[in-house]
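Researcher: Good morning. I'm working through a list of sequences from a screen, and I'd like to move beyond sequence-only analysis. For each chain I'm collecting a predicted structure so we can compare shapes side by side. This is the next one on the list. No need for commentary yet; just the structure.
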Amino acid sequence: MPTPLDTIDRNLIRQLRQQARASLTDIASAAGVARGTAYSRLDRLVNAGVITGHGPDLDAKAAGFDVTAFCTLEISQGTHDDTVRRLAAIPEVLEVHTVTGVGDLLCRVVARSNDDLHRVLLAMTEVETVQRSQTQLALRTDHRRHLADLLAED
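Model: Good morning. Structure tokens for this chain:
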């Protein structure tokens, strides 16, 4: 069941987004709540699975991954969980989504170059349950928003 987020929760998320390295006292102050309130609210959001990490957001290109691709995969019936597990074992496969329409899975993949992407795609299609793949290259990313940004805007 989703955890409802109130104004205090959204303010705390906004402050974390803007000042991820700030102390809890500074985040609480900027959000206009007591440190204890901030601690208990953030702890509740972590335990509810709303906040899933505190790591830095990384830019793929700046980190050396110049190629982003989206791969639509058709897989054998009844092999979903095994296929996802095997795809998740490929480090460059950042996301695997079960989708409707053409294909069964949509994967977001990064690579250091086109040659490296070829290697990654070969690894993906070596999964025996993958029957067909179609890949689209992202020429550039014109807009990116994180869920924390969306919640912070409310």
